[in-house]
Amino acid sequence: MGILKPTTNNQQPTTVPCGSSYEHVLSVLNESHNRRIKPGLLRITSLLSAMGNPHRDFPAIHIAGTNGKGSVAAVLSAMLTSGGLKTGLYTSPHLQDYRERMRLNGNPITRRELVGIFKSLPAQAEGEISDNIPTPYELGTALAFTWFSRLGVDIAVVETGMGGRWDATNVLENVVVSIITNISYDHCDYLGNDLASIASEKAGIIKNGTPVLTGASGPAYEVISSAAAAAGSPIYACGREITWEHGSGDTAGAAQLTDVGFEDRLIKNLPQRLPGCHQEMNLALAVSAACLLPDRFRPDEETMRKGLSSADWPGRLELFPGTPSFLLDGAHNPDGMEALCTYLDTLSNRYPRLVAVTGILADKDATTMIGRLSQSVSASYFISPASDRSLTASDMADMWPRSGEAEACKDLPEAMRLAAADAGKDGLVCVAGSLYLAGEARTLLGGGERCRYYP
């Protein structure tokens, strides 16, 4: 990695090359995010300036929101890629491999590319925590924007990490569409304890004169609408200018079909590959955003259908059929858990027994999440996720409202093994509570093939 050397007389910063292996790069980028969350744009602005301001080299679609922003980003990326555009995608966190965060036309950055860009960083990220040292997330954002610039992407789809106003991605200047998926409670220590405050933070991504789409409602919508008006930006909202309903075309055994209405336009029979009724709104937001893109980026309806037919977003209601079957979901806040449980409730006739493997972080509303989960599954096996901000398995088990149905486990393999035995060969095990937990489970399941831990 390069270390920024002091400069005088307005000289540009120079770097001192340092040997960096891929493992070393990951050790820096995966450093505890809890200890290094420092909202603000000064560090990322200075870092990008020293790198030649790569974030100015490409147009972007910027996406914020409490839930669904990754799904919307993935669907948009698939449609744009299908239209022949060189499309960058930046999301976080990752499931199994850090490189998932940065993609070109759906393919993650290579190890060699990641190490090469990391070595060119003109700032020191290793050392004691300081207000002047970029956080791991800020470093990752700079790496992604630099990669997109070097590749010469036609357009990038960029998801915020947390909030919006002070998120590192909010340095983007050439934003063509802004999307705020929805507003609910999460990261309250940083964003505020009421929906209006949270909405205000996320509305910070709105750029002057740039179209805004949102799935927010109630007071949150009013805040976003006011922010859009102040910026001179037209706003399009779900349930108002954006609508959707089940399509009537032949699915030929494939994805559900959805009709999306955008203002006075109706786009019929769009394939929805991502499961769950909540994904209908995400699809409608993505399709409506595509309709608002400048001509050179805007996909026609056939291109939309082609892209939607290939859209994929692992770890979100992802089913691994087997004996028993496993369902992985990254539900990590109350609204996410509600969406998961709504889906689980539709499966009760398909599986004779549903059980869960659950791990939740301490900064989440675990009591509400576990209470809702208990209404949809018969038992849960708890583990403490691999994070310095995790709840203990025993604390979570104590939150289960019924006796004899919760067990604290030492690790994920044990929890999955016990849950599999409990569910029986015809049952379903749902792994949820954290995206990292879903990713770890996905690794253990070996891409759908049974590994040595399970029947």
Topology readout:
Blueprint: H1 22-29, H2 33-36, H3 42-50, E1 60-64, H4 69-82, E2 87-90, E3 102-104, E4 107-108, H5 111-119, H6 136-151, E5 155-159, E6 175-180, H7 188-191, H8 195-202, E7 212-214, H9 218-230, E8 235-237, E9 242-246, E10 256-262, E11 265-272, H10 278-291, H11 301-310, E12 318-320, E13 325-328, H12 334-345, E14 354-358, H13 366-373, E15 379-382, H14 393-399, E16 406-408, H15 412-423, E17 428-432, H16 435-444
Helix pairs in contact: 3-6, 4-10, 4-11, 8-9, 12-13
> Can you tell me the CATH superfamily of the largest domain?
Mur-like, catalytic domain
How is the main sheet built? 8 strands, mixed
Q: What is the strand tally?
A: 17
Shape: globular
Termini separation: 45 Å
Count of helices?
A: 16
Q: What is the share of helical residues?
A: 25-40%
Rg over C-alpha atoms, rounded to the nearest angstrom: 22 Å
> What percent strand?
15-25%
Architecture (CATH level 2) name of the largest domain? 3-Layer(aba) Sandwich
Estimated structural class? alpha/beta
Which spans of ≥5 residues are poorly predicted at pLDDT below 50? Answer: 1-18, 448-455
Query: Biggest sheet, strands in spatial order?
Result: 4-3-2-5-1-6-7-8
Number of domains: 2
